[in-house]
Amino acid sequence: MLYYWQKNILSQNKHLGPLLCIMLYKYYFMKIIMSFFLLCAALTSQAQEVKKEKKRPMVFHSIGGSFQDFEGLNSRVAKLPEYKTLKDNGGTLGLGWIADCNRLITSGSLTLGSTMSGDKHKRSSTVRNYGITADIGYDVVKSDRVMLYPFAGLGYNGYQAIFNKDVSTVSFDDVLQSNVVKNSISAVKFNNSFAVYRLGVGFLVSSPKSPSHSIGIQAGYAGSFKSSAWRSSEDQTLGNAPVDKISQFFVGLVFSGRPMGMK
Question: Rounded to an integer, what is the distance from CA 77 to the centroid of its chain?
Answer without folding.
Answer: 34
